[in-house]
Specification:
alpha/beta; globular; binds thymidine-5'-diphosphate
Length: 197
């Protein structure tokens, strides 16, 4: 293994199980003696906190905030990876491409690609945890059904479609997020071990 760490990203709609898988990947790497750092976007930094506190109603302002947060986070990620640590990140640029282009007032995806391209590095591996939005939403909210739930479901469906397009374009590893956790861990670790060789 070289002195550089890997940069691994997990993407997917809400309720796809990214955070659980991220933490299990980090635990598996740690048990092998690899220094693994879990992280996420929006970050807990100053700009990420604005987004975590509810963001803004203006779709452009919100997109720019996600990317501003990412610009700062990317500097930190590069530092850690160059230092030999492996970074496992819950969401990265594909989240902005998928979510901010799928809203009622979509931001042009080519603009998002251009701006993201200036503030990101290409991860060594991106896993897309693909799941049917109804299953994902069920995991998030339980079984209550109302109009806004259907609106949200419709949005999640558009986000999922965008993700699948981006995954095909960028060569992401698509995982069936409805599989049991242990299986998801072993499949993702196979890809990671392959990259470490
Ligand atoms: P996240 O913290 O992953 O959600 P959770 O509350 O499940 O932990 O992300 C919060 C929301 O932000 C999520 O709905 C996706 C959205 N998001 C974007 O719309 N664009 C982005 O670039 C990112 C990073 C997140």
């Amino acid at each position: 293994m070289s002195g550089r760490g890997l940069f691994i990203v997990l993407e997917g709609i809400d309720g796809s199980g990214k955070t659980t898988l991220r933490d299990r990947i980090c635990a598996a790497l740690t048990s092998m003696g690899v220094t693994a750092i879990p992280t996420a976007e929006p970050t807990k930094g100053r700009i990420g906190s604005i987004l975590r506190d509810g963001g803004t109603d203006n779709p452009y302002a919100e997109a720019f905030l996600f990317m501003a947060d990412r610009a700062c986070h990317t500097d930190e990620i590069i530092g850690m990876v160059e230092d030999g640590r492996t970074v496992v990140c819950d969401r990265y640029y594909a989240s902005t491409l998928a979510y901010q282009s799928a809203g009622d007032t979509p931001v042009d995806i080519d603009l998002l690609k251009d701006l993201n391209g200036r503030v990101t590095v290409e991860p060594d591996i991106t896993f897309l945890l693909d799941i049917d939005p109804e299953t994902g939403m069920g995991r998030v909210t339980g079984r209550g059904e109302d109009i806004s739930k259907f609106e949200r479901l419709d949005f999640q469906r558009r986000v999922r479609d965008r993700y699948l397009e981006i995954a095909a374009e960028k060569g992401f590893v698509i995982l069936d997020a409805s599989l049991p956790q242990d299986e998801l861990l072993s499949v993702s670790m196979e890809y990671i071990m392959e990259r470490m060789r």
